[in-house]
């Protein structure tokens, strides 16, 4: 079954804009979750991503269980490590950091995860993950020990994304990083989108409705917002259905 991926493709074919809210298990307190989810359910959110660069063991599974009790939206794992994989979620972005040269995050972590995934009912979505320089170091950069691609090296980003598609990735994720000073440039999103026949996800540094709309207009099929809600969940008021 590829229900979630097929739904993404269906929405893309209908030009329906998709919004994923990223919830970090290390930052979301369970006592705050119910109110947060009430606001999320009234918004234009289409997916919930769960994950973080550094997360305590079992905290992802506990958080996902609680989220599933509070929403009908699909919950998709966005894991920073094998320990964040849980069968309680609906799907898993099987992320390969194709912008870096650390073999652990290109294929090594994936090998470690196979036994766990085989025992689960997770829908696995191969995703090419490309880290874009945003003006400051990110937790992804520190954890993976890789350098992001410069914002000015647009051709390198385009070719990396296309290589990911040719390798069989089903999604390409352009990531400026959590708390990014600058989001992924709209020109870069547009040029990458023109080269690909698979959906493009864009995340990092988007803190306003204007920036969200700009990302969609540039060609993003799914936009991911996390830090903006962590810092100010009243942002949901701008995104009501």
Account of the 3D structure:
The chain starts with a helix and ends in a 10-residue tail after the last helix. The protein has one domain: TIM Barrel. Helix content is 39%, strand content 17%. The longest helix has 16 residues, at 103-118. The mean pLDDT is 94. The protein is of the alpha/beta class. α6 runs parallel beside α7 and α7 runs parallel beside α8 (209-218). It has an 8-stranded parallel barrel, surrounded by 6 helices. The protein is built from 9 helices and 8 strands. α3 (59-68) links the parallel β2 and β3 (75-77). The protein has helices spanning 3-13, 30-41, 59-68, 103-118, 139-144, 154-166, 186-195, 209-218, 227-231, and strands at 18-23, 47-50, 75-77, 91-97, 123-131, 171-175, 200-203, 222-225.
Summarize the structure.
The protein is an alpha/beta fold and 241 residues long. The protein contains 9 helices and 8 strands. The mean pLDDT is 94.
| Helix-residue proportion | 25-40%
Q: Radius of gyration, rounded? A: 16 Å
Count of runs of 4 or more consecutive helical residues: 9
Given the C-alpha coordinates, what overall shape results?
globular
The CATH topology turns out to be TIM Barrel
One letter per element, helices H and strands E, the order comes to: HEHEHEEHEHHEHEHEH
CATH class: Alpha Beta
Please give the CATH architecture: Alpha-Beta Barrel
**Rounded average pLDDT:** 94
Describe the biggest sheet?
Answer: 8 strands, parallel, barrel
Q: β content, as a range?
A: 15-25%
**How many domains make up the 3D coordinates?**
1
Sheet with the most strands: spatial strand order: 1-2-3-4-5-6-7-8
**Looking at this structure, what is the CATH superfamily?**
FMN-linked oxidoreductases
Question: Kindly, what is the distance between the CA atoms of the first and last residues, rounded to a whole number of angstroms?
Answer: 29 Å
Low-confidence stretches: none
Summing up helix and strand content along with how strands pair, one would put the structural category as alpha/beta
Number of beta strands: 8
